[in-house]
Design brief:
124 residues; alpha+beta; Nucleotidyltransferase, domain 5; four-stranded mixed beta sheet; 4 helices; 37% helix
Length: 124
């Protein structure tokens, strides 16, 4: 499950982020080990894509994620310092590389919709 000392990891994370306890590190490591991630391409019916803006030490980070709706498997996670069409197309290419077909992709944002039109040859 987790290789390494929770105490050492909490000290390192406390230097980079906010102070974090060793029990919180152990809890997060246990939860992360339960996440299922797609390893090889397969048929997928529907994919949900989302993007979240986080603030880390006075800077903004955009975290992009894609999940297979039917199985709850994470297809891709990507973090970037900016949000533009080039980054969105790179992320969607990573997602589509894990599919053998052209699945229905559910999105919320315009940058994804425009990029999907170019990559996927569909109109949203």
């Amino acid at each position: 499950m987790f290789h390494g000392s929770c105490r050492k990891v909490s000290k390192v994370l406390s230097l980079a982020l906010e102070p974090i306890s060793k029990s919180a590190v152990h809890y997060l490591a246990k939860k992360v080990s339960e996440i299922r991630v797609a390893k090889e391409p397969r048929y997928r019916r529907c994919i949900a894509v989302d993007e979240t803006k986080l603030r880390v030490k006075k800077s903004h980070v955009y975290v992009w994620s894609a999940v297979d709706v039917d199985f709850g498997i994470i297809l891709a996670i990507y973090a970037s310092w900016s949000r533009n069409m080039l980054i969105a197309s790179k992320f969607l290419r990573m997602v589509l590389d894990r599919c053998v077909n052209r699945p229905l992709i559910v999105v919320r944002y315009v940058v994804f919709s425009t990029t999907l039109s170019a990559l996927h040859n569909i109109y949203i």
